[in-house]
Amino acid sequence: MTGLLTRLIGSLALAGALAAPAAARADSLDTAFDRTFGTELRAPPEVVSTVRPWAPTPSASAPSVDVYGGGLEAQLATYADAGQGRIGVAALDLASGRMVSVLGDQPFPMASTSKIAIVATYLDGVDRGRWKLSDQFPLMVPVRSARFSSAVAPVRPGQQMSAQSLIELAITRSDNAATDALLAAVGGPAAVNRWMRSAGLKGLRLDRDIATLVRDDGEHDPARTVDLRDSATPVAMVQLLSGLYQGRWLSAQSRAVLIGAMERCVTGKNRMRALLPTDARVAHKTGTLNNTASDVGIINTPDGRAIAVAIYVTGQGGKANRAARIASIARVVYDGYLTESSSLRRTASR
Prior knowledge:
Layout: H1 2-25, E1 51-53, H2 71-79, E2 87-93, E3 99-102, E4 108-109, H3 115-127, E5 136-142, E6 155-162, H4 163-172, H5 176-186, H6 189-198, H7 210-215, E7 225-227, E8 231-232, H8 234-245, H9 252-263, E9 281-289, E10 292-300, E11 306-314, H10 319-349
Antiparallel strand pairs: 1-7, 2-3, 2-11, 4-8, 5-6, 9-10, 10-11
Helix pairs in contact: 2-10, 3-5, 3-6, 4-5, 4-9
C-alpha cells in the first residue's frame, strides 16, 4: 500500500511538472504569471530543489550591514521596499570600503548582467594565452523551438566575428548571439562558474546559455519566487564588479577592454544613469527578463571616487516602474555616499 501511494504521489508530481510549461506558454514575458505559481510540483523535477517561494517579512527591507548613522541605509530601505516585488541592492565605495545593501545576500535573476562574467572568463583566457582578441568565432543564432522542448535551445552558426567585436556587442548592446558565441568559446556555463570560483566569488552561478534562458523565460515569477539558476546576489555582483575594476583578476589591457565596453553601454538609459548628474561617469551592464530588470556597474564621481553598484528589481507593476525604481535607487546611493564623503572631509578639517 505504501509503495502504491508513493508511486501515485510521484505520478501527480510529474503531471504537475509537465503542466507548467503549457500554462506558462500563454503568458507574455512581462505578465505577472500569477496563474503559474504556488506549488513546487510545477517546476521540472530536475530543478525543483533550486526554486523556492518567497514572501516579504517585516524585516525584508532591513539593511544587512551595520548602520553608519542610519541615513543612507534608511533611504535605501525605503526605496528598495519589497512590498510590490523583491528588490535587491548592494553598493560599495571603493575608496572607503563602505558597503550598504538591502536583500544583498538573496539571489536574483542575473539576466544579461551575467555577460560581464562571461566576457571576463574569455579575457582571462586571453591573459593566459589560450585565445586572442583577434580570434574568430561564429555568432550563435537561436533557432525557433517550443519552450521547454529541450534542455538546451537549438542555435545555428552565424557570421564569423572577432572576439573583440563579440565583446563589444555583448556588453554595449547586450547582443545574445554574440554572448553565446563567447560562451561556447570558453566552454559553456561550467567554464564561467569555474572562473568565478577560482576568483573566490560566491553567490554567482550560470546554468544556461542565453538562447535557452530567453526561450524558457517566464517559468517562475522572480517577484515571488527565488530561482537559484542563473542567479546573483547583489553583494556577490558588487564583489565581481569591484574586483574587475580594481584589476584583481585581469591584466590592465583586458580590464580596459571590459570596463571600456561597459562605459559605452547604450542600453538602459532610463535606469542607473537616468537621474545621475551629467558629470558622473557610469560603466554598467543591464539585464531584463520576465518581471525583472537590473543594472549593475561602476559610478565614477566628479571628485574621483568609484562606487560599485548592483540593483535588481522585480515586480513594481511593469517595465517603466522597474526602471524608475532602479534610477531612484542609483541616485540615493550616489547622493548618500557624496554626503558622507563631504561630512567626513568637514570633520577632518576641523
